[in-house]
Amino acid sequence: MHGIALFLHILGATIWTGGHIILTLIVLPKALKESSTKILLDFESAYEKIGMPALIIQIVTGVYLALNIEGNVLNWFNLDNSVANVILIKLALLTLTVCFAINARFRVLPHLSKSNLALMGWHIRAVTTISILFVFVGVSFRTGWLY
């Protein structure tokens, strides 16, 4: 079961991070250049159908994998445990992602216009950076880069 969970976790990360890299490097520059909210909203509408399930899969499998690595949830908060520190970093990145998503969904997207398109760009860049950090931290479970 661990192998299946790891595969699904990596697949979800590929979809989530890859989609945000495409959004940041291809879609966003075009939207900013053309001052077009439609370009962003069209991408978001299409990507959300696969991106959000990918994120949910990552959360579910991430919790499962963390429990396999460190079975006692209370140990996840033991700062003397280097593996727990990596789990905490992943949880912090998840918290940041959720905060940006809530802010974008309820504050920025409903009022998206040419005047706040740059603000949405900062949200997109931040979530993309966080998603890349997610991958880096995830790889560190195997490489030991962070412990």
Précis, in short:
The protein is an all-alpha fold. The chain has helices spanning 2-34, 37-69, 82-108, 117-143.
Description:
The structure is a single chain. This protein is an all-alpha fold. α1 runs antiparallel to α4 and α3 packs antiparallel against α4. The longest helix is centred in the first third of the chain and has 33 residues. The radius of gyration is 17 Å and the shape is elongated. It starts with a helix and ends with a helix.
SSE diagram, text form:
Layout: H1 2-34, H2 37-69, H3 82-108, H4 117-143
Helix pairs in contact: 1-2, 1-4, 3-4
Given helix and strand content, the structural type is mainly alpha
Count of individual beta strands:
0
Largest sheet: none
**Spans of 5+ residues with little confidence (pLDDT < 50)?**
none
Order of helices and strands: HHHH
Range of strand content? under 5%
Report Rg.
17 Å
Mean pLDDT: 94
- The N- and C-terminal alpha carbons lie at a distance of 26 Å
Q: Quaternary status of these chains?
A: single chain
Helix content: over 70%
General shape: elongated
Alpha plus pi helix count: 4
